[in-house]
Protein: Zinc finger PHD-type domain-containing protein
Organism: Dreissena polymorpha
Amino acid sequence: MHGRSDFESGMSPPKKGRTKADFYTFCSWVLTYTQYEQWKQDEIRSRDNTSPMDSASSTAESYTSESTLSSSSKDDSSRVLDMPDSEDESWEVITCFCLKPYAGRPMIECSECNTWIHLSCAKIRKTNIPETFVCNLCKEKQFKSRKSSRVRFENKRIAV
């Protein structure tokens, strides 16, 4: 075993702790890779392209156009799901307790249960990412286990 690396000998190298900088770099890389910023700008641009003249249409017309838009958005979502398999299948994976997919939004991993949660759902700012993060479900489990492991004594009163 003289001169062999840990990898060659079957041992995995020790894991490095994640830092705020690592997480921010990861999020930046993912957002760049998925071109999220460009997609978001295109989405905003398409929303802003509706002219004020459109708002003067009748209620029936607006209802019809809304239902057409909602059905076309359903078609868009099914097209997204029908896309060929790629490395980026995580785009639609739901891990957060809000039951919404990753969709390019920055997420943080709970160090207890390894669940990925959107920063917005965890109420964490990109500028204030903690070194270790524990989700509310794990915090509640810790609190309940600490509370239930306490020894309970009955309050005995002496009758006189």
In short: Residues 112 and 134 are 6 Å apart (CA to CA). The radius of gyration is 25 Å.
